[in-house]
């Protein structure tokens, strides 16, 4: 399972870390779970939902509101 955990980070630090990690995803990765948490506030969740990157096709919020799944673009 591919996941990026942003717990305990400040928004600016988390945004840079997320961008770096998305760039480092190996080819063939189709999705990655972004763990931003929910109970301690929504600043990270808001950043993740507004986050833009060329490799992200779409975002999915699952039943766990503390995780957002990024669907990664394929090479088409």
Provide an overview of this structure:
- The protein is of the alpha+beta class.
- It has one domain: 2-Layer Sandwich (Ribosomal Protein S8, Chain: A, domain 1).
- It contains two helices and four strands; from the N terminus they run βαβαββ.
- Strands 1-2-4-3 form a four-stranded mixed sheet, covered by helices on one side.
- Strand 1, helix 1 and strand 2 form a beta-alpha-beta unit.
- The longest helix has 13 residues.
- The chain is globular, with a radius of gyration of 12 Å.
- The two termini are 23 Å apart.
Quote the CATH topology: Ribosomal Protein S8, Chain: A, domain 1
- As a percent range, the share of strand residues is 25-35%
* The number of domains: 1
The helix content, as a percent range, equals 25-40%
Average pLDDT number: 92
Low-confidence runs of at least 5 consecutive residues: none
CATH class: Alpha Beta
Number of strands: 4
Number of helical elements: 2
* CA-based shape: globular
The CATH level-2 architecture is identified as 2-Layer Sandwich
Calculate the terminal CA-CA distance, rounded to whole Å: 23 Å
Structural class: alpha+beta
How is this structure best summarized?
The protein has 76 residues and is of the alpha+beta class. The chain contains 2 helices and 4 strands, in the order E-H-E-H-E-E. The two termini are 23 Å apart.
């Amino acid at each position: 399972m591919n996941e990026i955990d942003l717990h305990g980070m400040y928004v600016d630090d988390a945004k840079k870390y997320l961008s770096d990690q998305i760039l480092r995803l190996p080819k063939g990765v189709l999705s990655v779970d972004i763990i931003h948490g929910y109970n301690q506030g929504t600043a990270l969740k808001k950043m993740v939902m507004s986050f833009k990157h060329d490799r992200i096709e779409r975002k999915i919020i699952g039943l766990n509101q503390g995780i957002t799944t990024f669907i990664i673009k394929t090479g088409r």
